[in-house]
Amino acid sequence: MPRDHASADKTLLIATKALTRAFDRRTVVDHVNLRVHRGEIFALIGSNGAGKSTLIKMLTTLLSPTSGDASIAGADLRREATKVRQRIGYVPQVPSADGALTARENLKLSARLYLIPPAERDQRIEDALARTRLTDHADRPAQTLSGGMMRSLEIACSTLHHPALLIMDEPTTGLDPVARDMVWRHIRELRQSYGTSILLTTHFMDEAQALADRIGIMRAGKLERVGTPDDLRHELGAHATLDDVFVHVAGADAAPGRQASHARMRSGARSHG
Ligand SMILES: Nc1ncnc2c1ncn2[C@@H]1O[C@H](COP(=O)(O)OP(=O)(O)O)[C@@H](O)[C@H]1O
Ligand SMILES: [Mg+2]
To answer: Phi then psi for 51, rounded to 5 degrees?
Structure first.
């Protein structure tokens, strides 16, 4: 007997039920009900401090919820944490590749970490290098790679075990447009080749618009709004941009200029008064 409807639904890669996390009695993720479907690219946006990273850390089992439940790739977050870990890939906000090792050496480490059978390792690694166009750079120290290549390498490391779900926290923050483009292509190819579902956070509205099937807007720990980029825009007005939507939904708890990345994100917003 399935425990609940969410865990029985094979088309849902993420189904959270009132997922909540508090630090010292301060609730920073507040009864979030998030649903991400199989094969979907879902972007979480929200001001700094809205709770995006905390939510992601719970979904990846790195942080335990204060209350609530979740089913991740068909496994129960609380009771089947090991299964969850086997079925997801995670690219954290901070760089995760070892710059002193080569790209190939980084992938070899991941192959061991993810328990890929030794007979399959070399092929998996060569495939990953080819897919990320890193074959010709495989034996250079990772720290000499461009920003886009480095990020692609980190994504390749985190998906070597072909997880059903890839979770990434701000995968393109700090990258130039060329590097961002490389990462976008990589993300789309992962979905196309393996049907990987993707949850990512971003500060860039153009990225959410270009990449995501659906967007969730977090504000002060709550998932305030979910929809396709077009639906979210049209809800606000015929000529609304995603920046307008962001300011409208998430803007109230964001003091102007409080954070550089937030200021950057708002800079393209048009007035909708
Ligand atoms: N380990 C922690 N201890 C105490 N407070 C934390 C901890 N991690 C995050 N917070 C707080 O939780 C809130 C949400 O943070 P975070 O999830 O990082 O937001 P976001 O990723 O949206 O910027 C912030 O106010 C932050 O200071
Ligand atoms: Mg964060």
So the answer is: 110, 10
